[in-house]
Amino acid sequence: MNKRLLFLPIVLCAFSASANAGQYAEELGVCVYKNLTSSDKTVMTQWAFVTLGKTKAARQITVIPDAKTKEVNQKAKAALSRIMTQNCAKEATKVALHESKDGLKNAAATLALRLAQDELSDKMDASLSGLLNPGTANVLKGAEVLKGFFEKR
């Protein structure tokens, strides 16, 4: 099984703080996400991975060398600094003014969750199909089809 796929439960738990993130942190996370280049997305996905790699649950699966963690963190810091000063300065300022205690952490959680969703969305169908019985899988597919009918427009 793909190691990244095993991280999904960790991602959802570790970054569930984004569900409680403040308005400004959420806006900053979305702004950063929307302004990522392709190479930025790679770096930030790696950052999310090595960040989760520090948890006890992740270390039971794999160990990421400290040198690699340091390298990825430096690249992520450079990308975030550039985006937050050039593209998302207004959102970063609002976080600093209104949500200074946990704002950046919550913005990072929002960003990491979106990156994880991007990375894992196409891989989850195959993985979950082996975990669910056919009836449950069909119910989930039906729910996905009906989802569009109930959304506000």
Provide structural commentary.
This protein is mainly α and 153 residues long. It has one domain. It is built from nine helices and no strands. The N and C termini lie far apart (39 Å). Keywords: Signal.
Number of helices: 9
Shape designation: globular
Q: What structural category do the secondary elements indicate?
A: mainly alpha
Number of strands: 0
Bin the strand percentage: under 5%
How widely separated are the two ends?
39 Å
What does the largest sheet look like? none
Q: Provide the gyration radius in Å.
A: 17 Å
Residue-averaged pLDDT: 81
Low-confidence residue ranges? 5-20
Estimate percent helicity: over 70%
Number of domains: 1
**What series of H and E elements makes up the topology?**
HHHHHHHHH
Keywords:
153 residues; mainly alpha; 9 helices; signal
Gist?
By secondary structure, the chain is mainly α.
Structural topology:
Layout: H1 3-6, H2 8-14, H3 23-34, H4 38-52, H5 56-59, H6 66-86, H7 89-98, H8 103-131, H9 134-150
